[in-house]
Amino acid sequence: MNAPVTGLKAPVGRPLYVDLDRTLISADVSLENWLNFAKRGIVPALLLCWWLLRGRAYAKSMVARRVRLDPATLPYREEVLEIVRAARADGRRVVLASGSHQRHVTRVARHLGLFDNAVGSVARRNLKGRTKLAWINADADGPFDYVGDSRADRPIWSSAHEGLTVGYDPRQRHVRSVTLRRVPIWRATLKAMRPHQWAKNALIGVPLATSGLWFEPLATLKTGLAFLLFSLTASGVYLINDLLDIESDRAHRVKFSRPIASGTLPIPIAIGLGLALLTLPLLAAALTLGLAFAAVMATYLVVTTAYSLRLKQAMTLDVVVLACLYTIRIFAGGVAIEVAVSSWLLTFAVFFFLSLAYLKRYTELAVTTQPPHRLLSGRGYVGSDIEIVMMSGVASGMVSILVLALFIKSASPAYQGGTPELLWGLCLVLLYWLNRVWMMARRGQVSGDPIAFAITDRRSLILGAIALVIALAAQRLSLP
User: Fold this and answer.
1) Of 213, 207, 204, 205, which Cα lies nearest the Cα of 475?
2) What's this model's pTM, rounded to 2 decimal places?
């Protein structure tokens, strides 16, 4: 490969042809449209499979009639845009030529206003590889330059006078590399897996603590394994969820930078890894922790998949489901170590995490720029719902503390030899933390997931440590 360049030197008369997917943008329009169409339900998904059997060009055409592309939200590569602008400044003819459907390619070209022509696939022609080369040869009627990104572009580069590649190395002397500000795939993958969210799965250890088995090696080992398997499964869920939410994530002021939405993690890799993380940990759970624990994990997968596909768009039901997903983790911890989880504890968890789920929706409503009576993208709430969301969240939090007080009274048998009365200190810790986090949210100091906030907030971490000391002292410290 020659040294990286930022543009091409060419006479004014030589046209420049630019690919769209993974070249002009760091995403794949066709794959995203197929996902957007398939997630509408079982019938659309089966229709897509039938259309694909009839050919990729046919599937692109049928989906393009039903899915509208918003070119303003696409992740454009500024480096390639600079090449296009430089070519236009030199008076050259610039054409957008892509394997994506003609409707989408035309829409992108009109949005940018930088291309003299735009061509894409139609029902009987998939504009890719040699098919694209034949069209370019007929259109250019002479030497041309080309910017592409994949193995399918090799025949076009071979015929081009000079070429640029974005990422893929065709090992052709006259093809040079565009210098990109790229994120390594491994880093994008790790970010998409969201390991910082694994802290939520620490809830699996709650039954270990409340049952008094803190220092039992086998129980601790099983809890650790359950935590790992749940965490890997949760990462698989995050990947699939991000695949389904590409469109709404790009419209979000923060989520647009997520690896799949920004195009730094290709869709095929995300799909493969997501499916692997959804199946392999489930199999490992059945083999190591038993079928009962695997059944709980499967239930979690079914509920969270239903949430990603439909339930998160249902007002109020979405936060109830989120609270249940947190509570399932506690129940799973009990199943892993074969300990019955108190109904008081499960009730506390439902109300406590219902409060945090409402808090998450509150922060989304607080920063929205939508009109007060317009639904948030991908949600069932409008801006004017913010006050009732806040009241419901605060009320749920207070109820959870009341339930915790009742639970503490029933926890005494697990704390024989200790001082269970010390557990009342947990009520004070949670009362302070819940009121503080809601007040901070009201002031705009909490953004996004409250769990993510808690593990990065110094005071929340100190309170968590105090709660842990209280729980340990209640079990091990005997006071008169």
Assistant:
1) 213
2) 0.79
